[in-house]
Design brief:
280 residues; alpha+beta; 6 helices; 5 strands; 65% helix
């Protein structure tokens, strides 16, 4: 930071001022950590919230998968168990404001909570990969604010994959809170910015005041008041400078006294022969 200021002050004369440099450094030191922490908190909240939502959906997906297996849902026979399973699926989809699609081994959609794709065949690279590999996958779309999970439905007893479940849920609530936190963070940054400007201005002015004092005292000494001591009680360094200036003034005063004594002696010696001549 100081290197940047040093590089700029060669181009801008005002940056040669110690007061201005202190002001800039203090302002940046106060503002940069607030901006960094604010950004870090927002990013942490977003990532943690999405991960928590994914974990919740995976748990719900595991529950639905067990219900589908236990009710023999993909057999195509409607029973009390399959009806209860469908009701559970509808409730979960509604609670999380999302969509659940069930696909059998033939890639045919047997259940769509939106009722848009029932009976259709799905051709999706992610679904086919899930069926072939047998592993879950997720996709987070920040622009459109939704999460999509593709999970295999496996019979735990036979280890057979009997279908695939696609879960798409909105993340608008997460991003709404994120936007609210971002606005609050911006307000806090503005408040900190104003406070930093006030504090930096006051401190920079106070910190450079001893330099102005010692400059005025030196100017006063140059007018001939060499016998007055320079006294600035502030920083240790300034007190050291004051002592050095006082030693310099003391030395100059001695030289001035010697000069005046020499001039006085010379004047006296010159006056004595002239007086003698006048008497004669």
């Amino acid at each position: 930071m100081l290197h940047i200021v040093s590089g700029l002050k060669g181009r801008f004369k005002i940056l040669r001022s110690l007061r201005v440099q202190l002001f800039i450094v203090l302002f940046l030191v106060a503002l940069i950590p607030v901006l960094f922490v604010s950004k870090l908190m927002l990013e942490t909240y977003q990532s943690d919230s999405i991960e928590n939502r994914v974990s919740e959906l995976q748990e719900k997906g595991a529950i639905i998968s067990n219900l589908l297996v236990s009710s023999n849902y993909f057999s195509g026979v409607s029973t009390m168990d399959t009806t209860d399973t469908e009701e559970e699926i509808e409730q979960i989809a509604e609670a999380y404001r999302g969509r659940i699609v069930l696909v059998n081994k033939d890639l045919k959609i047997v259940k769509d909570t939106y009722g848009l794709e029932d009976g259709k065949t799905i051709i999706s690279e992610q679904v086919i990969n899930c069926y072939n590999v047998g592993k879950s996958s997720k996709y987070v779309d920040q622009e459109n604010e939704y999460i999509e999970l593709i999970m295999p439905i496996v019979n735990a007893s036979t280890k057979e994959q009997i279908g695939i479940m696609i879960m798409s849920f909105s993340t608008q609530s997460i991003y709404a809170v994120y936007d609210s936190m971002e606005q609050a963070g911006n307000v806090i940054c503005m408040v900190v910015c104003v406070l930093a400007i006030v504090f930096a201005f006051i401190y920079a002015r106070k910190a450079t005041r001893p330099f102005a004092q010692i400059s005025n005292l030196i100017d006063h000494a140059t007018d001939g008041f060499l016998n007055e001591n320079v006294s600035v009680k502030s920083y240790t360094e300034m007190e050291g400078i004051s002592e050095s200036v006082n030693r310099l003034l003391t030395r100059l005063q001695k030289l001035e006294d010697s000069r005046q004594e020499f001039v006085s002696n010379v004047s006296h010696e010159l006056k004595t022969p002239i007086t003698s001549i006048k008497v004669l």
